[in-house]
Design brief:
Chain lengths: 319, 279
């Protein structure tokens, strides 16, 4: 199940492999490994406790980017039914770095939109590692306007290293595309729930990030710049990412304390990639409870509250 | 005319520019070494290549607003080091040092004024203050300016010059993009005109929020405008960038801005636009 191990996860590798092996062997029922499996389970859990409680911001950064971590499409498949992907910005092309479409959530139709990273090198390449061009933001905005017209709530999932730094992206106005999303999302007449599921990198993340509720998976990160990018500029040394990750306060717990996000969604011990289903269930529960609250608000109040939410972000003195 | 001759520069700069930066300046664009007075007489525009040098907010005001009409607002907002951010230097020290050096509390000056008799709310970036970076103070001042403009149904004018987000404020810096853009959304709903003037450089979080949201977007000649920095792009695509990439002329050609306006014609152009919009 777990295919790739980060450096700090490696002590688990052998134990988890043995565990999988015994599980498979006991499937055919010829031998009983239950006591050994139980012992292994305890050992694994103890080790997981040691490794995964008190993760550093840098370790969380690596977890947020873990290649086996469930991505937008995985969550869509686990949480929603009848997802119909809709393509294109009606202007230039379809950007596979952002996907979206109608889906049903416990029988109610919603618009779900998110960055898609891809799960193996080929797939990652096809989705440009979740780094959108302007077309991606414009497609997202088209779909959001569609949702508004048909009065469907919007759920966005953020998982991107950032906007794609390329010639075409600049040529076609990525600054304008991001800015327009921020402007329009702030006044859309339907509820918007934003979820940072993995990596929330800079303006490319924020372009799907204006909403009524901002949720964040426990090991996700959200930052104005990648730790490496920050280190390259401020420390003049891109390898100082660890230090920058500490300084930027980019973890879910930091951002909850700073009143930027509304809820931390729990991941199973060992991270979302060890148990995507449980993660998806937790997420679904959160989405439903927040949606239930905000769909009851009259539209005008909803928009007013959304404005206030962002209006009060910022810290300064006056006098 | 002997008084005039005295100001004429000697034909060849005798000293290296670094030794007499009070007299000689190297143009960032064409690399020519030019007599400082000659540039200053030319509204801080390079006489050789027409590059528009960055100018302090005060100077910009004097070129744009009617004399004696500017009243500054929100002057006392000051940044707070909420994250206790320290890279090679503490953010709190960076703020203090910048405030001392520039004589301003932060990177944005705002207020009300008249231009050709037309009342406006006007905001100008002070690029020298931490690269005009967008932190909580700049975001709050921009938002209040937008709100003032809405309440008084008075046109809004913003001159941008910024390297982007203020990293030392982490996600608070990022959220200023959402906050200011949300304010602009309301302004647009009310039909109050909003004009942005992009000056060198306008990049990152400022370009991807209120800078590119102007009803009318003007730019100074050769201004660097974009989202990602050219170095990052070059490293990512591993190829040379096209000539003139991310300059005002390039953006005009690609349909991203309305007009390029030289500094000496900026005030005239703004008055004309305000006039057209009010009749
Ligand atoms: Zn020059």
């Amino acid at each position: 199940m777990i295919r790739h191990y980060l450096e700090f996860e490696k002590p688990l590798k052998e134990l988890e492999a043995r565990y999988e092996e015994l599980k498979a062997l006991s499937m055919d029922g010829r031998e009983d490994f239950s006591s050994e499996i139980e012992k292994l389970e305890k050992k694994i859990n103890k080790l997981k406790q040691e490794i995964f409680t008190n993760l550093t911001p840098w370790q969380k950064t690596l977890l947020a980017r873990h290649i086996d971590r469930p991505h937008t499409l995985d969550f869509i498949n686990m949480i929603f039914k009848n997802f119909v992907e809709l393509h294109g910005d009606r202007n230039f092309r379809d950007d596979p770095a952002i996907i979206g479409g109608f889906a049903s959530l416990d029988g109610k139709t919603v618009m779900v939109i998110g960055h898609q990273k891809g799960k193996d090198p080929k797939d990652m390449n096809a989705h440009n590692f979740g780094m959108s061009h302007p077309e991606g933001y414009r497609k997202a905005l088209r779909l959001m306007s569609l949702a508004e017209r048909f009065k469907k709530p919007i759920i966005t999932m953020i998982d991107t290293p950032g906007a794609f730094p390329g010639v075409g992206a600049e040529e076609r106005g990525q600054a304008e595309a991001i800015a327009k999303n921020l402007r329009v999302m702030s006044i859309l007449k339907v509820p918007i729930i934003v979820i940072i599921i993995g990596e929330g990198g800079s303006g490319g993340a924020l372009a799907l990030g204006v909403g009524d509720r901002i949720l964040m998976l426990e090991n996700a990160i959200y930052s104005v710049i990648s730790p490496e990018g920050c280190a390259a500029i401020l420390w003049k040394d891109g390898s100082k990412g660890k230090l920058a990750a500490e300084a930027l306060k980019l973890t879910a717990s930091d951002l909850f304390e700073l009143n930027i996000i509304d809820q931390i969604v729990k991941e199973p011990l060992g991270g979302a990639h060890r148990d995507p289903e449980t993660t998806a269930n937790n997420l679904k529960e959160s989405i439903l409870s927040h949606l239930n609250e905000i769909t009851q608000l009259p539209t005008q109040l909803l928009i007013e509250k959304r404005y206030e939410k962002f209006r009060k972000m910022g810290v300064f003195t006056e006098g | 005319m002997s008084w005039f001759r005295k100001e004429e520069p000697p034909l060849i700069p005798k000293l290296k520019e670094k030794e007499r930066p009070d007299l000689w300046v190297r143009c960032k664009n064409c690399q020519e070494i030019i007599y400082r007075l000659e540039i200053e007489r030319n509204l801080d525009v390079c006489p050789k290549c027409n590059y528009h040098f960055q100018i302090p907010a005060e100077k910009r005001l004097s070129l744009i607003v009617d004399e004696g009409t500017f009243e500054e607002i929100d002057k006392n907002l000051s940044s707070v080091d909420i994250l206790k951010f320290k890279d090679t230097k503490k953010y709190s020290d960076r703020i203090k040092d910048a405030q001392k050096k520039i004589g301003k509390k932060d990177a944005f000056v705002s207020g009300k004024a008249r231009i050709g008799g037309y009342p406006v709310f006007i905001g100008i970036f002070e690029f020298k203050f931490m690269g005009g970076s967008l932190g909580s103070v700049v975001g709050e001042k921009v938002t209040r300016l937008v709100e003032n403009s809405m309440e008084n149904k008075t046109p809004l004018l913003i001159f941008t010059a910024s390297g982007g987000a203020r990293m030392q404020e982490g996600v608070f810096s990022l959220m200023q993009m959402a906050k200011t853009s949300a304010a602009i959304a309301r302004l647009k709903n009310m039909g109050v005109p909003y004009i942005t003037v992009l000056t060198d450089p306008t990049t990152g979080g400022v370009s991807a929020s209120f800078a590119m949201l102007g009803d009318i977007i003007l730019a100074e000649p050769k201004a660097m405008i974009g989202f990602a920095g050219p170095r990052v792009i070059k490293e990512t695509i591993k190829a040379e960038l096209p000539p003139g990439f991310q300059r005002a002329e390039y953006l005009l050609e690609h349909g991203m801005i309305d007009r390029i306006v030289p500094r000496q014609e900026m005030k005239k152009t703004l008055i004309l636009l305000l006039d057209l919009l009010s009749h």
